[in-house]
Q: What sequence folds into this?
C-alpha cells in the first residue's frame, strides 16, 4: 500500500516538475518575444543579404571580381543589400535613386569627414591661420588631382581605342569630325577640344561602359541613419556599384552595346559632375574625384591627337580585340591593346611639330 502511494507521489511530482518547467520556458519565450518587439518598435529593418560565417562574415564567398559578385547578389536581394565583411557591415547599392540618397540627400552624414577643399580656395586662404591649409596639404591635394587624372586618362584612352577598333564605323565618324573641325593640314590643339562633340560622346560612352573605378571609395555614415527605408548602422561601409548602375536597362537602352550616340542629344545634361545619378564616372557630391577637369581635358586631347594624326588597325589583320579585364581599384585591360598606326597627314612635317 505504502509503495503504491510513494509511486503515485513520484509520478505526481515528476508531472508537476515538467509542468512547471514547461510553463517557465513558455513564459521566458513570451517575454523574449515581447522584449524584441518592444526594442525594435519604430525602427526600420536592416537591408536583406546573404548569411556569412562567424568572425569573417561573407568574405570567403566573395569572387575575384566584386562587380559581378555584387551584381549577382543584387539580382537576389534587390538594389540595396548587406554583406558582413569581417567585423564591418558592407552595404552595397546598385540603384541610381539610392545613390542619390547617399551622395546628395544625406551627403553630410555619409561623407564622414570634412569635404575636400579645392586647391584654388586653399591657396587664397593660406594667410588665414584659422582656416588655412599647410603648404604640404595643398601639395597633397594637387598631387592627388594630377595622379588621379593621369591614371584615369591612360585607362580611358586605352578602352576608347579598344572600342573604336571594334567599331570601325564609329572610328570613321570620329575622324570625319576631326577633319571637318581641324583639317588635315593642322594638328590638334587644346582649343579644338571643346568643338569635338562626337568625340566627347565617345569618351562619355567609354566611361559608362568601362568606368576606371567601378566602386567609389566606401562612404561611412557618422551616425545611425536610413537608406531606402532600411536601417544603416553608424560606421557601415557603403559601396556604390557604379559599374552596375551604368548598365541599368532602366536608364540605358541596350546597355551592353557601345553607342556614343546616346550622349549626342544629352551631351550637356549628362556631364562628368554627377548631377544625374545613373551616370557617375567620377562620383558626386563632397567625395567627388578632384581630378575631373584634368582627366576630361587630357583624355579628349590625347584621343583626338591619336585619331587625327593616324589611321589605326589591328595587327595581323585581326578581326576582334581582347576585352578581358583585371579587376582592382582601377579596372584595366588584362592584355595591353596592340594597334598599328599609319600617317593621316600628307605633310609629314606636321609630325615633327
A:
Amino acid at each position: 500500500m505504502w509503495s503504491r502511494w510513494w509511486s503515485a507521489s513520484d509520478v505526481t511530482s515528476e508531472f508537476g516538475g515538467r509542468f512547471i518547467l514547461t510553463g517557465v520556458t513558455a513564459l521566458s519565450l513570451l517575454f523574449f518575444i515581447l522584449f524584441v518587439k518592444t526594442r525594435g518598435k519604430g525602427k526600420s529593418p536592416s537591408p536583406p543579404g546573404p548569411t556569412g560565417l562567424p568572425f569573417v562574415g561573407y568574405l570567403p564567398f566573395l569572387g575575384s571580381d566584386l562587380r559581378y559578385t555584387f551584381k549577382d547578389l543584387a539580382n537576389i536581394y534587390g538594389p540595396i543589400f548587406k554583406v558582413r565583411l569581417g567585423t564591418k557591415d558592407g552595404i552595397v547599392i546598385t540603384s541610381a535613386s539610392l545613390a542619390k540618397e547617399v551622395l546628395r540627400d544625406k551627403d553630410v552624414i555619409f561623407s564622414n569627414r570634412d569635404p575636400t577643399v579645392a586647391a584654388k580656395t586653399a591657396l587664397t586662404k593660406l594667410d588665414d591661420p584659422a582656416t588655412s591649409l599647410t603648404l604640404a596639404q595643398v601639395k597633397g591635394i594637387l598631387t592627388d588631382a594630377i595622379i588621379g587624372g593621369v591614371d584615369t586618362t591612360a585607362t580611358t584612352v586605352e578602352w576608347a581605342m579598344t572600342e573604336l577598333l571594334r567599331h570601325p564605323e564609329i572610328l570613321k565618324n570620329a575622324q570625319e569630325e576631326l577633319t571637318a573641325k581641324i583639317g588635315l593640314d593642322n594638328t590638334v590643339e587644346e582649343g579644338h577640344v571643346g568643338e569635338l562633340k562626337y568625340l566627347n560622346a565617345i569618351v562619355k560612352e567609354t566611361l559608362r561602359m568601362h568606368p576606371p573605378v567601378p566602386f567609389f571609395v566606401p562612404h561611412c555614415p557618422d551616425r545611425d541613419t536610413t537608406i531606402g527605408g532600411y536601417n544603416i548602422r553608424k560606421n557601415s561601409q557603403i559601396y556604390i556599384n557604379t559599374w552596375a548602375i551604368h548598365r541599368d536597362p532602366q536608364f540605358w537602352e541596350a546597355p551592353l552595346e557601345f553607342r556614343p550616340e546616346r550622349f549626342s542629344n544629352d551631351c550637356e545634361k549628362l556631364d562628368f559632375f554627377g548631377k544625374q545619378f545613373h551616370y557617375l564616372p567620377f562620383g558626386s557630391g563632397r567625395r567627388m574625384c578632384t581630378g575631373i577637369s584634368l582627366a576630361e581635358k587630357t583624355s579628349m586631347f590625347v584621343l583626338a591627337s591619336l585619331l587625327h594624326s593616324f589611321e589605326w588597325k589591328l595587327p595581323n589583320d585581326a578581326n576582334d580585340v581582347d576585352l578581358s579585364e583585371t579587376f582592382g581599384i582601377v579596372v584595366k585591360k588584362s592584355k595591353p591593346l596592340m594597334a598599328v598606326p599609319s600617317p593621316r597627314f600628307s605633310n609629314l612635317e606636321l609630325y615633327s611639330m
User: Anything to note?
Assistant: The CA atoms of residues 63 and 69 lie 6 Å apart.
